[in-house]
Amino acid sequence: MSARKRRRGVIESSSVQHGEAAPHPVVIDIPCQHPNNPYAWRNPDFSELAQLDPAFAKLVYNWSPCLDYSVKLADFYDSKYTGTGNPTLDFHDPRSTLALTSALLRHDWGISFEIPEGTLCPTIPNRLQYLVEIEGLLHLAGHTGTVQVLDIGTGYSAIYPLLGCRLFPSWSFISTDIDERAVVAARSNIERNGLGDRIQVLHVLDPEGPLLSHLPAPPTVTMCNPPFYESTDHRTKQQQEKQVSHPVTPAVDAQVATEGGEAEFILRMIRESQQQQQRDRAPDATKLFTSLMGFKATARVLEAAACEAQVPWYQTLSFRLGSTTRWIFAWSWDPLMAGRATRHLLLSRYPHVGNEDGDVNEASSSISRWIRALLDHLQVHIVEMDDRAIDCSFQLATWARRWKRRKLALTTTPSATPIGDGVTGTREQGPLTVRIWWTPDQYRGFRQPMGECAQAQPCIWLAGEAKDPLFLSFYTYLKAEALKISSDDQA
Fold first, then answer.
1. Is the dihedral of CA 448, 104, 123, 112 positive or negative?
2. N or C: fewer beta carbons within 10 Å in the chain?
3. Helices (H) and strands (E) in the chain, counts
């Protein structure tokens, strides 16, 4: 299970990867929104949205143009939320979700969005959650360069490609759907936002045909938000068992139900991915396969299938938005993934680090400057770097006291030779490569300021060999340095 420990403003966590030997499902719970989700720390201002969007203002209760409000977005998607005098929406009215989604896309992301009446309207925060989780999984896989995403069942909105292109400039999408009306609507949204050069929508003519074989070359990663239910009756029954107080969300049948439900749909993906990996060899093979899930029980079915198929690496993630929980199942046929682990540190704030001119208000990432300064101090070699991530390679624990004592001995006794890496004695594996990535000060496509938000708690992730003592030592060092940021706040 994932280990979580809160200590002086820093959360340390280790992801658990498991393969064919896993005796039971391992679900890594994320009790709130991902730190890289722009809405995790900055709540939308409903008063501002109402002032900017007359259609949204008509559906808002407890609102006056002369007052300012900031309301936690997750509460508004929670059917049990009754309001506390703040602006609120009546989600018994299906128009409310559509009005909020349209207003957030238009105001925060510069996205123009239309869907036909009676079709499923996406909620923005959990769509963003899926995208930033995929980003983290690609870092865990050690991927570099551009990313091509296969979005299976893009729907009428094409919401994942639209948001993905705003979030990540190096991503492109190929989206598929079996519904011709959905394909037409999705292409319209894409063209409306000028993203036709980065998003391609394909109409799949055979609903029972292959899910992954529509491309001339394998994508980097796949994503899918499949129909959760086996039938519309199954959907109604589940809503009744959960005692859901709000009406069933409008949707066409193909968006919510498929034969065998989500479990059978994703099992098809696992079987096809196995066939694909036998045909496409690295480095051309797809790095990761992922799918969203609506039922926790599905994870057990998928993990049993992955175990039987001898998938080298698979993982189940969960996250919550209001009263709604969703799960992500991810797997990879790359055997190198099996030994890798992710650790993360949740900071109390963004570090105040000046640029070369000493300006701490420079728009470039403060976390990037902070990490770069640490690595320079340690004389750690940076393999690759962009504005969101660093690959670093080292063979010596130059931060360890043992290594520093050996280095001092070398200066006092020139004939002495330091032995080992300062952690494990003599290191025979060669240099260790660690991927480091972090919460950005600002997403390029997000129009609201992130880094200056008082509630912001940015996060730093590390990915490396799980059982390598040098990786664990480096993480411990970085954790101690991160704690100093919290200590500075208390001083």
1. negative
2. C
3. 14, 17
Count of CB atoms situated within 10 Å of the CB of 70: 15
Closest CA to 95 of 127, 57, 148: 57
Nearest CA to 107 among 458, 348, 480, 448?
A: 448
For 6, list phi and psi in degrees, rounded to 5. Answer: -95, 130
Strand bridging mode 324-332 / 288-293: antiparallel
Given phi > 0 = left and psi -120 to 50 = alpha, else beta, which region is 420? left
Question: Is 304:296 a contact under the CB 8 Å cutoff?
Answer: no
Using alpha carbons only, give the angle 72, 114, 156 rounded to the nearest 5 degrees. 100
Task: For residue 79, count CB atoms less than 10 angstroms from its CB and return exposed for 0-12, middle for 13-18, buried for 19 or more.
Answer: middle
**DSSP annotation string for 126-183:** HHHHHHHHHHHHHHHTT--S-EEEEEES-TTT-HHHHHHHHH-TTEEEEEEES-HHHH
Q: Say how far residue 1 (Cα) sits from the centre of its chain.
A: 19
In whole angstroms, give the CA distance from residue 227 to residue 90: 26
How would you class 396 by CB atoms within 10 Å of its CB: exposed for 0-12, middle for 13-18, buried for 19 or more?
buried
Q: Mind listing the pLDDT tens digit of every residue in the chain (491 residues)?
A: 333 333 333 333 333 344 433 333 333 334 456 888 888 777 667 777 888 888 888 887 655 544 444 444 444 444 333 444 566 677 677 788 888 899 999 989 999 999 888 788 888 888 999 999 999 999 999 998 899 999 999 998 999 999 999 999 999 999 999 889 999 999 999 999 999 999 999 998 887 888 887 677 889 999 999 886 665 666 566 565 565 555 556 656 565 656 778 888 899 999 999 988 877 766 678 999 999 998 888 999 999 999 999 999 999 999 887 777 889 999 999 988 988 999 998 887 778 765 554 444 443 478 888 999 999 999 899 987 777 899 999 988 888 877 766 666 656 655 555 556 667 667 777 889 999 999 887 777 787 766 555 556 788 999 999 999 999 999 999 999 988 876 555 44
Closest CA to 84 of 98, 70, 95, 101: 70
Q: Please state whether the peptide bond connecting residue 247 to the residue before it is cis, i.e. omega within 30 degrees of 0.
A: no
